[in-house]
Amino acid sequence: MASETPQRNIVIIGGGIIGCTTAYFLTRHPSYSPQRHNITILESQSIASGASGKAGGLLALWAYPSNIVPLSYKLHAELAKEHDGANRWGYRAVHCGSLSARGRLHEPTDTKGGEAAEGKGEEWQKLPKTDPNAKAKMAAKGIPKDLDWFDADAVTGYSEMGDPRTTAQVHPYLFTTSMADLAVEAGAKVILGSATAIDYTGPHGVKAVTYEDKETKKIHTLPASDVILAAGPWTSHIFPEAPIDAMRAHSVVVQADVSPYAIFSEIDLPRDFGRKGGGDVRVRRHGKTVSPEMYARPDGTVYACGEGDHLVPLPKSSDLVQCDPDRCQDIIDYVSSISTPLRQGAILARQACYLPSVSTGGGPLIGETGIRGLLLATGHTCWGIQNSCATGKLMSEFVFEGKAKSANVASLDPRRFL
Ligand SMILES: Cc1cc2nc3c(=O)[nH]c(=O)nc-3n(C[C@H](O)[C@H](O)[C@H](O)COP(=O)(O)OP(=O)(O)OC[C@H]3O[C@@H](n4cnc5c(N)ncnc54)[C@H](O)[C@@H]3O)c2cc1C
């Protein structure tokens, strides 16, 4: 790396969680000097406009890859302590469990979105929490006492996957934007514009990044001594050699103030499953098993996401991502089929985003590319929130020390994949 040059222009392409934690850790590195080091996050649309603003936010010591997970999990806890992450980005330890259930067909409680379904359907008083019979049924199935937001008749089994020592959570949008803000407070800059090319024809490798300004649409050139490409699923649009694939996934956020659990579910749907009545004739035959994930959040909401699809290719930018309302409604129907609070809660968000993965398997890709000054930090699949802190820390070491020190990431060396 160009550590001998006093002036460094470090450009991070992508203002998702990976780009923003990288900026944060660069500004916290002992060698960082705001006088000598210009750090720029170049983000095409807005900070956290991709998966980083629409993910679940689970952190787990049993995530993968094992060479960076413990470091990242520990750094999440340290950052939360240092910056009041509990209040600022909803950091907290949670239980995590796997729940099996039999879904039931219910009348729709929210077909238009937005409005709460209070007064319609079943009442809160019928919740298992307040019904002694239901409580006894839940206890007989091994369900923890405080996991009281699923219907007793629907649940068929539960097993613990993590306890508050091994699983935690953040609100990914709030965490990512906080990382960007903290980096900016320490001297980093954010530019809204889309990188169109990386020029690495200089005598010392990387020379500049050209981008189209988001507002003016004018093309500009940013001088660069170091470029960290952290554009998630868009990485191969900028650097086609990077073997990064994109898979679309939908999610919803439901208003429901429930106990702190992250739930991986397996729901057997009845053959005639869907929504009836209310003028809605969307009744479908399922008879299959679906597996939405549900994460209770400290802000009185539950985030739920469904399975991924490859039906719509990755668009040019995050603002053009197509959200299919039917896919979101599926998730709402699935989780509503086993939980009264989720059935009754207002739907606060219906959204879609793209997951970045390494097409050959493995990853993420963290480190040098073989082109001097060009580093990759991408392909984090479904653990990018969990592994963001370790990635950011390691990138700061690559830039300022020329190699990773906090973890052995030889198996994630991009040169093995390019
Ligand atoms: C439904 C779902 C649930 C998830 N849940 C979890 C979870 O619970 N825990 C967990 O650890 N992980 C989870 N993940 C995974 C996690 O969201 C991703 O791994 C992570 O967000 C990837 O971050 P990123 O910064 O690499 O990419 P992104 O968030 O996609 O950010 C890339 C950024 O680059 C910008 N960009 C693109 N092209 C350009 C360009 N040319 N110039 C400038 N900027 C550009 C984009 O606008 C975007 O903001 C989940 C993912 C999905 C889809």
UniProtKB/TrEMBL annotation:
Renumbered residue ranges of the record's region Disordered: 102-134
GO cellular component: cytosol; late endosome
FAD dependent oxidoreductase domain boundaries: 10-397
Pfam families per record: DAO
Compositionally skewed regions (Basic and acidic residues) per UniProt: 104-134
Listed GO biological process terms: retrograde transport, endosome to Golgi
PANTHER family referenced in this protein's UniProt entry, alphabetically: OXIDOREDUCTASE TDA3-RELATED, SARCOSINE DEHYDROGENASE-RELATED
Name of the protein in its database record: FAD dependent oxidoreductase domain-containing protein
